[in-house]
Design goal:
Length: 288
Amino acid sequence: MRALAQFAMRGPLQASGVAAVTTAVPLLFWIGAAVVGLVILRLGISQGLNIGLWALLPALGWSWLGNDPTALFVLIQVVLMVSVLRLSVSWEKTLLTGSGLALATGVLLPALFPQLLNDLVATGVAFYQQYNPEVAGELGGRLESVVAQVMSASMAGTYLLIAVAVTLLARSWQSGLYNPGGFRAEFHGLRLSRPVAVLCVAVMFGAPLLGLNSVLVGWAAAVPLMIAGLALIHGMIGARNMSIQWLVLFYIALVLLSPSLMLLLLILAFVDSWLDFRGRFNPSGPAE
């Protein structure tokens, strides 16, 4: 992957070609978005937008001809998030920007892609009626609206997670090519401020009370805490100079024990905003 990033940074022609081709190829759109993000971080927003136009064309094609807006929404979110990161050098502001974009995506999806949502809702309703008739009976006439909210929220949340991962990838490429070790130290030190941590938790619990789409708002508010929690784990393991196997075991456990372990991760990230575990921790050696 680093070799691909090096090739893309040889010039605008190479970057445009990689961004356009990878976005056009199914399941490789994230590489195109990462290349655009790398150009923005290294050369500036104006240069990145010029490259991004070449990725935008196949993304629009997938959206309107293939009825799949994934590449389009991820590209837009990555461009905006990376631009905020370049201007502010703040992961907190970058993650909050992503959360706001996820909320906007959840609202725009039914309006811009009604046929896609209708098909997904019909599939979801049929699934509940066939495999979980008790829930379908309890919801009654509200079943379709509930499924619609869940589908739009799940799509928006998935796009946000992909966009955050791509933004992290673009930053790691930039660090690997031009500032070795910079991204590792940056990510290991990522911690939400107290007001932002409180805001995320308040929004998560307040959404149902306000009659908002609690699934969508929960996705958007949980992602900054989740990334901060992952940064905490990486930072603690790095400070102890522990092997990468510990991270592998952690991610395996995260997959197998979710959502319980994910909830614990969110709680740790919130508490870390107040107690600063890494600041209190006496490192035994250089960070990994």
